[in-house]
Design a protein that fits this description.
By secondary structure, the protein is α+β, with helices and mostly antiparallel strands. The two termini are about 25 Å apart. It has a six-stranded mixed beta sheet, sandwiched between helices. Strands 12-14-10-15 form a four-stranded antiparallel beta sheet, covered by helices on one side. The chain has a three-stranded antiparallel beta sheet with strand order 4-5-19. The radius of gyration is 24 Å and the shape is elongated. Helices cover about 30% and strands about 25% of the residues. The protein has two domains: about 270 residues, Zn peptidases (Aminopeptidase); about 130 residues, Alpha-Beta Plaits. Strand 4 and strand 5 form a beta hairpin. It catalyses: N-succinyl-(2S,6S)-2,6-diaminopimelate + H2O = (2S,6S)-2,6-diaminopimelate + succinate.
């Protein structure tokens, strides 16, 4: 297909079209249809990859995903994103209807404007500009999911597994998450901490508080275990640096992670009475961990600690774990530098390479290729009146166009 046959996409209008689709996770409501039509018109071969199954929150879900590729040559530069959005919260609290895509004073309002329908639209628009002028010396691809804001069990994770099984090669990937902190292009995310959830149940024996010899109280046992876990220092950060080392030595590491942290998120015995020793005590914790650890290694440690307390107290302790993603770091190199150079040349600021924040689908894509996140300013994501200046959408499109050109020059 010749370049002249491709129309240039307006990032604001495409963002508005996507906002007007109420794709609250895990619903799609036609968001993938809009993208498939748009990308097909740009010469992409589109595959709808639908996966379904238990979500881990009590029901099954059918998740729409899209993998689109234009070209067969290497390198293959991929853009990844998600069309699902979080719920609106109290609609009455919004000053603009969350799914209307209203513009006021040059600012576009709507759920998903920042996270991350605006990012998707900006990359599509950047690709359309490039194709209107010519082509790229390789392939362009899109990996779009409808399951990023939910349990993330049947979205990018499943698509990556399928692509790897097929031998699909992706050489580098930009995820369009709203990575900018205060100003567009001030930050890219080159790594994320892993996340491990653990559910703890201590099984005791119910009885009357006046006759403790006839019962087995699980409450002090779970308190003992939680105190041991909470007191444990997981690490000093990654890379692990001596706090007493010379300042110059500590400053030589440009990208790192803070210390891993374990947080107790709930403790419950489900006991409404004042004169009953409960039969069970339950707790839940989350560990956000840097590359010092793996999910399996932390699970082994938690199981050992529970085993020690179980042996000391004689009460059975049951643990259930779910690791939603491993920690990863895309090391500084050609890809990261190319993105930083392109953003600096376009926006006038060099983005900091950061590992802050929660998890993203980059944790799955890392199995395929080097990955980083570059997108809009995230100040209003998940908030009432989520919004983005239209000028910022156009500026991000400029930056993405420069990123695509620079990455292809250097890969």
């Amino acid at each position: 297909m010749s370049a002249a046959s491709h129309s240039v996409i307006d990032p604001v209008e495409l963002t508005r079209d996507l906002i007007r689709i109420p794709s609250v996770t895990p619903a799609d409501e036609g968001a993938m249809d809009v993208l498939e039509r748009t990308l097909t018109g740009l010469g992409f071969t589109c595959r709808r990859m639908v996966f379904e199954g238990p979500t881990g929150v009590g029901h099954d879900a059918r998740i729409e995903n899209l993998y689109a590729r234009r070209g067969t040559a290497s390198p293959n530069l991929c853009f990844a994103g998600h069309t699902d959005v979080v719920p609106t919260g109290d609609v009455a609290a919004w000053t603009a209807a969350p799914f209307e895509g209203e513009t006021r004073d040059g600012i576009l309002y709507g759920r998903g404007a920042v996270d991350m329908k605006g990012g998707i639209a900006a990359w599509v628009a950047a690709v359309s500009r490039i194709l209107a002028e010519g082509d790229v010396p390789g392939s362009l691809s899109f990996l779009i999911t409808g399951d990023e804001e939910g349990p993330a069990l049947h979205g990018t994770k499943r698509v990556v597994e399928a692509l790897m099984a097929e031998g699909e090669v992706i050489d580098a990937c930009v995820v369009g998450e709203p990575s900018s902190a205060h100003h567009l292009g001030d930050m890219i995310k080159v790594g994320r901490r892993g996340s491990l959830n653990t559910w703890i149940t201590v099984h005791g024996k119910q009885g009357h508080v006046a006759y403790p010899d006839r019962a087995a109280n699980p409450a002090p046992v779970i308190a003992k275990l939680l105190a041991r876990l909470d007191a444990h220092v997981l690490d000093d950060g990654y890379p692990s640096l001596d706090a007493n080392a010379p300042l110059a030595e500590r400053d030589c590491v440009s990208v790192g992670f803070p210390p891993s942290n374990l947080e107790i998120t709930t403790i419950d015995v489900g006991n409404p009475a004042t004169n009953i020793i409960p039969a069970e005590a339950k707790a839940r914790l989350n560990i956000r961990f840097n590359p010092t650890h793996t999910g399996d290694g932390l699970i082994d440690w938690l199981n050992r600690e529970a085993g020690l307390v179980q042996a000391e107290t004689g009460l059975r302790i049951e643990l259930t774990h779910m690791c939603s993603g491993e920690a990863f770091l895309t090391e500084p190199g050609v890809f990261v530098t190319a993105v930083q150079d392109a953003v600096e040349a376009t926006l006038g600021r060099r983005p900091e390479a950061s590992t802050t924040g929660g998890t993203s689908d980059a944790r799955f894509i890392r199995a395929l290729c080097p990955v980083l996140e570059l997108g809009l300013v995230g100040q209003t994501m998940h908030q009432v009146d989520e919004r983005v200046p239209e000028a910022e959408l156009r500026a991000l499109t400029d930056a993405y166009q420069a990123v695509i050109g620079t990455v292809f020059e250097r890969l």
